[in-house]
Structures are given as C-alpha cells and as structure tokens.
Amino acid sequence: MNIYALSSGRGPSGIAIVRISGKDxxxxxxxxxxxxxxxxxEVNYCKFYDPxxxxxxxxxxxxxxxxxxxxxxxxDLAEFQVxxxxxxxxxxxxxxxxxxxxxxAEPGEFTKIAFQNDKIDLLKAESIGDLIHAETELQRNQAxxxxxGNASNYxxxxxxxxxxxxxxxxxxxxxxxxxxxEKVLKEVQNSIMEIHKDIQKIIEDNKIGEKIKDGxxxxxxxxxxxxxSSLLNLIAKRDVAIVSDEAGTTRDVIETFLNIDGYPxxxxxxxxxxxxxxxxxxxxxxxxxxxxxEADLNIVVIDNSSNxxxxxxKKMINKDTIVLLNKADVQEKQIHxxxxxxxxxxVKENKNIDNxxxxxxxxxxxxxxxxxxxxxxxxxxxxKLNECLKEIxxxxxxxxxxxxxxxxxxxxxxxxxxxxxxxxxxxEEILGSIFKDxxxxx
Length: 442
What we know:
Layout: E1 2-6, E2 13-21, H1 25-33, E3 43-50, E4 55-66, E5 77-84, H2 86-97, E6 102-104, H3 109-116, H4 122-133, H5 137-147, H6 150-174, H7 182-203, H8 208-214, E7 216-222, H9 228-236, E8 254-260, E9 263-269, H10 279-294, E10 297-303, H11 311-316, E11 322-326, E12 341-344, H12 353-365, H13 379-397, H14 404-422, H15 428-435
Parallel strand pairs: 1-6, 7-9, 7-10, 10-11, 11-12
Antiparallel strand pairs: 1-2, 2-5, 3-4, 4-5, 8-9
Helix pairs in contact: 4-5, 6-7, 6-14, 7-13, 13-14
C-alpha cells in the first residue's frame, strides 16, 4: 500500500508539499504528471493533472523523486511542490486518493516506516517529533542534539559493553572445563560497575530533559490582592486571568505556556494565601500550596504597601524563590527584607518586570547543565534505564561462583532494557505511543 499526505501546513501559502511513499510511487507520479522520464534526486519541472479527466490541477509545479533505499522512509518516495491554495491541495489529495493502492497516511507513519526500514532508531524518531513541536530555542537545541545521534551513540556504546561482558560470562558457562582467567572475570565486574555509574549519572539529572521538552513549571504565589493575576497577564501579554479588586477572585490554578527568552515555561497563577471560611476558596488555597511544592521555581508576590505578611506566605520564601514586592507605585521604599532574591516592582506601571524576567531565566539556567551525553527526554527512557539498573544491581549482588547462570540472565535482561531505548529489541508495543503525536505527513 502506498501512503500520501500533506507535509506542509494547510493553505493559503506560497508552496505546499505533498508526500507519497510506497512501491507504486513512480507509477503514480507518471500518471499525475504525464512525464515519460522522471529524474531522481533532482527537481523535475512539471504540471499535475487529474488522470480521470485530464484537468490541470497545477500548471506550474515541481516533483522530487527519491528511489529506495535513498529516501527518508527507505521506500520509494516523492514530493510534490504545488501552489499552496486550499483548492489546489484538496484537488491533489483527492486525485491521490483515487489512485490504486493509495491511502492517506496516519500521523507519524512516514517516520514509522523509516524506523522499520532501519533508516533511523527510536531516539532519532522521537527527536524528529520534538523538533517539529519545538516552540523555544532551548527545545530546538535539545531536539537537534538528539537528532544528531549523540544519545543514540552513548546508549549503543553502553549496550555493546554489556554484550561484551555477557559474552565472557556465557563463555565461562559453556566451557566450564576450561579455566577463564580470573583477570578477565575481574575486568567484567569492573566494566559492569562502570556502566552502573554511567546509568546512575544519567538518571540523576533532575529530569531536565523532560522539563526542557514539556516546560519548566513556575508558580506565582502570595497573598490575596497582591497582583498575582495582573502579573500573569502582563508576562503573558494577554488577559489570561480575571483581575478584580475583590479579594479571593482567583480560586483555581490558571496555567499558560510561555517562551521566556528561549526557555519553555508553564506559568501558573494560584489563589491568594489567607485564612478563609469559604469552602471553594479553601480548596483554591490548598491547590496553590500544592502547586508551589511541585514548581521548579516560585515567584512569591507581596504587597509592598502592606505592613504585615501572612505566615504561610513567609514559609514559602527561601533562597530558591523570587520575591516580587509589588505596588512600588504606591510605596516606593522597600519595607520588607528577605533572605531571597527580591525585586521591587510595579505590575500596574510595568516597572522592573524586565528584571523579573531576567531573574527567572537566571534561576532556571542554574538548575541544569549539559554535561551528560544522553539527556532523558521521555518517561519511557527513564523507566527502561531504571529497569536496566535494577538488573545490573541483581547481577552485582550474586555470588558468581555459584549463580553464574542467573547472573548471565540478569545481564541479558539489562541489555534488553537498554536496547529498547533505541529500538534494538522488541519495540512493537511502544511504537504507537511514540508516533501518535506526530503530524500527518511526517
């Protein structure tokens, strides 16, 4: 079966790109263009027709033809570059649907076929998806690094070391009558311990890869009527939250995704912290306290014109928080001191908010480094690494003089878990979850 899809965005646009891949790709191309010869790996200037009635779909178009295996999918593949009006796109897709053995591709199916044809591994497939969905510079950089194969090479190297160690263990089992030098077995033990340290180092990463991919969680907390919702709206540059002089207006958690100088941030406005008899507001305060504990960074907003501060709010302030003393337009002098980064500002007059943005970026940047060759970007990777580590621990705990066969099985399982990250072993059950978020045509 041949698959086709619009790979660029919907029109109107200057150019739209439609892809088709499968064994009958060249035949379909000739049917739609009436070209007798189509040159591979170069631009073919052509017209696109509807073979059913010879009506011209696009009088000025381009065709790129990539024979297998030198294509993105590893199968025959072609790209049609046509004018990007909705009418041209619809007519071309309708014509393709009427060709023999042609159907619309499912989301991510082109990339899934590329994986199945060994053109890419699972990590590269996932990084392609991340690159498509990247909204910030940090997300783009991370996706590019993964796409270049750094993580794949790192995991493959660890897996090869495990396989080599397993080979020595199995040799000892299969040829028990032949003495394997003690030096070799000691080297195996040391190699496995080094792999254990490497994987432990990858896991202890504060989940930075996932946070770059999904967004850092920054929570705006503080007292009622301190200007939290106004701050959210100001940073977001739109009305996300309702602003009112009435205390306790915000009762739920309101979140918005922002690009703060290249950093992906999920900014949350929460209910003001105070003692209240209102059951709905109590629930809001409870959610606010929970959100502050989950956050990567808390911005505690305090009314600088107020002489007192809620005790619960005081407990939130530490060296890892940012205190925003708001309403400097009412009280210009800072009247509260904290052992934390403090910014005197006015949300109403947009005063010193740029300093707050800089401080947010500075705080987030300190939470991670790119020292590791392999950043974990998905829970699937973390789960497999933990399972691999568990089997290595089982191996290291065993008495290799008595339980060598069981120790070998531990290494076999560890190798399988590590290999499944890049797709070296059984991966059919995880393919659906990986490709379901791809756009159609990729």
